[in-house]
Write a structure and sequence with these properties.
With about 250 residues, the protein is of the alpha/beta class. The protein is built from seven helices and 13 strands.
Length: about 250
């Protein structure tokens, strides 16, 4: 590595733990759509996968010793017991192993000031981890299914950022995004601020104010890789974190 060229930072991405078919195999697997990895690598980072597994605070700390940034990715709904609600009929059967894994990684990341980007489910993980709640089924709130068309079809929609937030600095006043969610943030977790809403006034992004990079969006930036600004931001923050750790 040329001494004048900074090393590419390592960014960990959480994964699904689900059944998958590949070749002749049909088995439970830790996996993640390749677009997430492409977003990180195109932005100049090195992507590593962090599959759900039994976790303790010590294990979470060991895992995060090897990365300079954390992306909490999309996936099935969180267990509503984690925010004090009974499950709605439309809420997914929870994956408690993944829930515990991501809550532990996030707690340790926040403790050490590690840069964090949450994507869709990841925004909900951040909010619930800090004491917030979720709307379990948006059609009950809005009267329409506009945020999740179904059958793997993403819904393009405009969002408005909140002036003075990190997200507004990154994306400007408005941005067209790709959505696929039937749940959304209700009550905000402690210290979080809203950094974007859509035309239905649904919260589409949250962040923690301050120097540490902690930002989460309800949409899927990996579905719009012609716009790498969020991936570039987490990779840049990871690079600064790595440099500070070395120095």
């Amino acid at each position: 590595m040329n001494g004048s060229e900074p090393e590419r930072p390592v960014v960990g991405l959480t994964t699904y733990l689900d059944r998958a078919q590949f070749g002749v195999w049909d088995s439970r697997a830790g996996l993640l759509p390749a677009a997430y990895l492409q977003g990180i690598t195109a932005a100049g980072g090195i992507a590593v996968l962090l599959p759900p597994q039994p976790v303790t605070p010590e294990i979470a700390a060991r895992v995060l010793d090897g990365v300079s940034g954390l992306v909490i990715t999309g996936g099935r709904d969180l267990d509503p017991a984690g925010y004090g609600q009974p499950p709605h009929a439309e809420t997914d059967r929870p994956d408690t192993t993944r829930d515990a894994w991501e809550f532990a990684l996030l707690a340790e990341a926040l403790r050490r000031g590690l840069p964090v980007l949450g994507i869709c489910r990841g925004a909900q993980v951040l909010n619930v981890a800090l004491g917030g709640t979720l709307h379990q089924h948006l059609p009950d709130v809005l009267g329409n299914c506009g945020h999740r068309a179904g059958n793997g079809v993403f819904t393009p929609m405009p969002v408005r950022t909140v002036a003075g937030t990190r997200l507004a600095e990154l994306l400007g006043e408005t941005c067209q995004v790709q959505c696929y969610h039937h749940q959304a943030i209700a009550e905000l977790g402690a210290k979080l601020v809203v950094s974007a809403r859509d035309d239905d006034d649904v919260i589409e992004a949250i962040e923690l104010p301050g120097e540490d990079f902690v930002l989460a969006v309800q949409w899927h930036p990996e579905e719009s890789l012609d716009d790498l600004r969020l991936f570039t931001a987490i990779v840049a923050a990871a690079g600064k974190y790595a440099q500070a750790r070395v120095s």
